[in-house]
Amino acid sequence: xxxxxxxxxxxxxxxxxxxxxxxxxxxxxxxxxxxxxxxxxxxxxxxxxxxxxxxxxxxxxxxxxxxxxxxxxxxxxxxxxxxxxxxxxxxxxxxxxxxxxxxxxxxxxxxxxxxxxxxxxxxx
Length: 124
Hints:
By secondary structure, the protein is an alpha+beta fold.
């Protein structure tokens, strides 16, 4: 009876898949969990392409609420990834955010890890 399907022996396919799986798992563990959360990744990404953004600009861009943005921005600020400046324009309070050098390095590391995960998955 002729065998149909892939020409690669099952043991070799399993071995490659296992290797890719191990690489992907180790890459996933190396991800910066602080940035990996969707809203925080959005904040860091937006600030990576803008010198600074106001609270209201970020809120509109990310389509989120005041409370949600505040909580996630505070976590990034506490980690040193984002700097926050508060001031008054006349009588109106203003808040602006910018990505710090440490935040930019963290984003670069995160993107490098994601690219490695994608490569390992596609090669597997």
